[in-house]
Amino acid sequence: MFVRVLCVAAAAACLLSSCAGRSQTESGSLATSFAPAKAISSANPARKADADSPVALTPVAWGRFNNPGSLSGRTLTVSSLSDIKLANKEVVLTFDDGPMPKKTEKILSILDEYNVKATFLMVGQMAKAHPEIARKVVDAGHTIGSHTYRHADLQHLSFDAAIAEIEKGRDAVISVTHEDAGFFRFPYLADTGRLRQWVASNGMVVLDVQIDSKDYFGVSPAAVATRTMNSLRANGKGIILLHDIHARTAAMLPALLTQLQAEGYKVVRLRHSNSSMMLASLFD
Ligand SMILES: [Zn+2]
């Protein structure tokens, strides 16, 4: 019996570790970006309920719950990656892969409640599919960027095909929102030096990640919030990677924001310095 339990544990560990690697999460289509969570959820139906469960707050958060407004930090206007210099206890919230009905909207209302602004890196075909939600993101005052057209793994494309994906994604987001999409994030964070250079020389700022919430794993909202806070405490500051396509992300966001506020963090709002110039050139 003991051996059997060990085997099951080993198999589960194997499944989780393969999800962390590129082979499972990064095979290059929009659909696969949803796959790891679904795979684990269906293997263990009890976990499905976790995705909508509220997250318990820690005692420090209970004690300072009534502290409205103090989470919102400065606005940082940037024209290149090197301009993004965060002080200790400063974070940038980023949401990738949307817009997604219900989930993006829920996240927008939570951000509004906490009076903080985030950056949404939209997938082109998602923005095309849900233009009204993409516009809600802009109307709420958040910053937007693109994330390719179909969530392609650009390391597995030719240079020209990768550029076409990036341009198509950016154009889709701009055509839907009529707003600057001056930021870019590589799907699966799969970049190359040459592509980074191309993105920068074409008026976009690549957004890297310092704190990966790993909200794409099929774990509970509480586990995501705890992992994010632990990583943040170790790093002191940073750009946080989240996804507005997962229920667990929306479920844990109030707890994460409450905890950030309780521990004295500030959410910095990013702005691209060339936004109006870039839009003017596109609509001339
Ligand atoms: Zn993504």
Shape: globular
Please, how many helices? Answer: 13
Helix-strand string? HHHHHEEHEHHEHEHEEHEHEH
Number of strands: 9
Strand fraction: 5-15%
The average pLDDT value, as a whole number, equals 81
Relative helix content = 40-55%
Q: What is the CATH superfamily label? A: Glycoside hydrolase/deacetylase
Structure description:
- Keywords: Hydrolase, Metal-binding, Signal.
- One of its GO terms (cellular component) is membrane.
- Strands 1, 2, 3, 4, 5, 6, 7, 8 and 9 form a 9-stranded parallel β-sheet that branches.
- The longest helix has 19 residues, at 2-20.
- The chain has a single domain (45-283), classed as TIM Barrel.
- By secondary structure, the protein is of the alpha/beta class.
- Helix content is 48%, strand content 14%.
- The chain contains 13 helices and 9 strands.
- Zinc ion (ZN) binds at residues 33, 96-97, 147, 151, 187.
- The site of zinc ion has 6 residues, from loops.
How would the blueprint of this fold be written?
Blueprint: H1 2-20, H2 22-25, H3 35-43, H4 46-50, H5 59-63, E1 72-78, E2 90-96, H6 103-113, E3 119-122, H7 124-129, H8 131-139, E4 143-146, H9 159-177, E5 183-184, H10 193-201, E6 205-206, E7 211-212, H11 221-235, E8 238-243, H12 247-262, E9 266-272, H13 275-283
Parallel strand pairs: 1-9, 2-3, 2-8, 2-9, 3-4, 4-5, 5-6, 7-8
Helix pairs in contact: 6-12, 9-10, 11-12
